[in-house]
Amino acid sequence: QVQLVESGGGLVQAGGSLRLSCAVSGRTFSRLAMGWFRQAPGKEREFVAVISSGGSIIDYADSVKGRFTISRGNAKNSVNLQMNSLKPEDTATYYCARGPRVTSRVDGYDTWGQGTQVTVSS
User: Fold this and answer.
1) Phi, psi of 109 (to 5 degrees)
2) Which residues contact 120 (CB under 8 A, 6 or more apart)?
3) Which of 81, 106, 115, 119 is close enough to 20 for a disulfide, judged by CB 3.0 to 4.6 Å?
4) Are strands 78-83 and 18-25 parallel, antiparallel or unpaired?
C-alpha cells in the first residue's frame, strides 16, 4: 500500500523560504505523477505544482510561478517543493498527492498525504 508523508512545514516571515518534502513508500513511485496542493482555512483545496513520472513535465499554479520549484528523486522515493519569496497568502496546509497522470485537478489524484502546515507572517 502506498503512503505519502509530508515534512518541512513551519513558520516563516514574508520573503523567506521553506522546503517541503514528501516521502513515498510502496511500489511504482517512478511511474506516477506527483502533485502539491494547499488548503487554507475556509477555502477549497487548490493546485500548486505537479511533476510527471519522468520529470519532463512540470506545471505550476500562476500564483506560485517563479517562486516555487518542484522536483523529484526517484532513487530516494521523494518529491520536494522549494518555496522562495513566501507571502502571507501562501499560508495553508500543504499536501502531496500521487496520480496516474499530470493534472491540476484535485480529483485526478488517488493517494494523499496527511499535510504539513506552512504559516507565513507579514
Assistant:
1) -120, 140
2) 11, 12, 13, 14, 16, 86, 87, 88, 89, 90, 91
3) 81
4) antiparallel
Please, what is the end-to-end C-alpha distance for the chain in angstroms?
40
Amino acid at 120: V
Q: CA-CA distance, 14 to 90, in Å (whole number)?
A: 9
**List of residues 6+ apart from 118 with CB closer than 8 A:** 9, 10, 12, 18, 20, 38, 83, 86, 90, 91, 92, 93, 94
DSSP symbol at 109 = -
